[in-house]
Specification:
CATH class of the largest domain: Mainly Beta
CATH topology of the largest domain: SH3 type barrels
Bound molecules: zinc ion
Order of helices and strands: EEEEEEEEEEH
Largest sheet: 4 strands, antiparallel
CATH architecture of the largest domain: Roll
Radius of gyration: 24 Å
Strand order of the largest sheet: 1-8-9-10
Number of strands: 10
Length: 139
């Protein structure tokens, strides 16, 4: 039996990470202070409840991680299951072949596409909220 792997031990590979991003919008009522002055007394702002504002929709942002080397390749062949697989261990984490990229450019292309898609999705959500006449964090 000959098993071919796309990558070899010690190959330098790029992987894609994800992080969440949202923007903070200052509260209009208290101008982001979290409190308001009323007749000489300071009160917690009733609009933001002292939170000083609100976050916009949280977007998932993909990014290219710094390249690492493959430290281990695990091949599982199992007659009982269809899901035979090749696992690559990179920087202590397990990756499938499709999650590894041989160049930064290839990883970046995927990242760009995912972020474009994510942006479109959040723009769609924003438009929906305009149609409904409310923002997403009004419950
Ligand atoms: Zn406020």
């Amino acid at each position: 039996m000959i098993i071919e792997t796309k990558f070899s031990l010690d190959d330098k590979v790029w992987t894609i990470g994800k992080k969440e991003k949202s923007d903070f919008i200052k509260c209009d009522a208290c101008e982001g202070k979290g409190s308001i002055l009323l007749k000489g007394e300071i009160y917690r702002c009733p609009a933001c409840l002292g939170g000083k504002g609100r976050k916009t929709n949280i977007n998932e942002v993909s990014f290219v991680r710094t390249p690492e080397r493959i430290s281990k390749i695990r091949i599982v062949l199992d007659a009982e299951y269809i899901e035979d697989g090749i696992d690559y261990i990179v920087d202590g984490y397990s990756f499938q072949e499709s999650e590894l990229f041989p160049s930064e450019k290839e990883a970046q292309d995927i990242v760009d596409e995912r972020n474009r898609r994510e942006e479109k999705k959040s723009l769609g959500k924003f438009k929906e909220s305009l149609v409904e006449g409310k923002t997403s964090d009004e419950e």
